[in-house]
User: Fold this.
Amino acid sequence: MAIKQNLTASLREEALELCLAIYRLTKLFSEEDVLIDKIKSLSLEILADFVYEDFHDTIKKIELLIYCFKIAKNQAWINPLNFDILEKKYNLLSNTIKENQIKPERVTLTKKKTSGESKLIGIRLSDRQKEIFEFIKDKKKFQFNTIKEKFSTFSERTIRNELNLLISQGFIKRHGSGRYGFYSVINRQ
Assistant:
């Protein structure tokens, strides 16, 4: 257990160093470039995964980031060696996750019937889901943009995925659709 904690802390520091390196490197480019925004965004998401120890889609994010590096490298903006080094280091992070099978802790959903009503027991949320739920639990209703503004370091896709997981686990409910849709917290007492 202590080895896994030390490994996770070490990986978190490595992800931070890589994120900082990307920000230093991308200062050399036009701030309006979509590709550079995507590279920065993915590096922040990967860092957030290590901070919150939630690795369920980290490998996919790293793979996408590496493809972004390949595109950027072909633009010949700077010495391609910079992207090669970043690619190699992110591949090491990905391989370490795979080799150590670092996965978020999850528990199976169990439903218990009480007086005609289902109660959910035995649910374990990821740290990111807990953080989002703590923010929304006292709100009667809220819209996606409320969450997006509060958790600006997460991508929209990540927030939607976490909200969908909270819906599937019976914590919140979606009402309506599109920009006028909203969510509400399900009373779990």
